[in-house]
Amino acid sequence: MELKKEDCKEFVGKRDVNSNKGDFGYIAILGGCQNYSGAIKLANLSSASIRAGSGVTRLIIPKSIVNSVSPYLLESTLFTIDDNDGEMIFDSKEIDKSLHHINALAIGMGWGINKNNEKILEYILENYSMPIVIDADGINTLSKMDLEILNRTKSQIILTPHPKEFERISNISIDEIEQNPVKVAEDFANKYNLILLLKGHETVVTDGSETYTVKKGGAGMATAGSGDVLSGIIVGMLGSNKPSSRLIATCAYIAGLAGEIAEEKYTDISMKASDTIESIPEAIKEIRN
Hints:
CATH class: Alpha Beta
Shape: globular
Strand order of the largest sheet: 3-2-1-6-7-8-9-10-11
CATH architecture: 3-Layer(aba) Sandwich
Strand content: 5-15%
Number of helices: 13
CATH superfamily: Ribokinase
């Protein structure tokens, strides 16, 4: 079914005046590498998660890129992982420290692809039980691993591929994906017991049994960082909400609506990903009303 504005309202209700940051979740974003530090990208992710309602956002990055990333951060906290030539080193104790007290995790943005990342992702999937959003190089890393780990993990996995990434991880051709996106998405979600958000002009979100399509957004969102904004919104909302297809579809709706608002302000040519972030509050107001 197509997700409508009224379907999103329960996730953006007004908060109790006596609430505190702990009520809305401690979330983490793990990514970045020397060759692709994506300082602004990572900052956008953390900013989007805060705009979407996380209580505390922790950015986990390689130590060597901290100086390039930290100037862009205001409200987020930082945790650094030792690295080798700009790539994270796998150290289970450091991973455990970085994820202490975390309610939800997004992993893979600007991360690069290497064997250490495979070890890190494998360790997290085998040892943690929380919602985990896997995007970008997280998906590319996962595509090189045995996907049966997705059926063994105690974590609720949310995958957010665009068609090319989905082709890479599913071995289904883009032509077949585009011919029947709902069917291939539902089959994959069922097979690996996860929530799949398949990006496109009509986004499909499914856990294999409950499926939503989201028809929000515009041409102005075809710019670097838009997918990262979506991942930030998702992990931000997972800080205080149980994962479900409708919640993840709501995140896609908020991202798309914020993109439409930004496009109206800045045009489809001139808008950038951070404009979408700045429009998240207006999108939430519109849904509430």
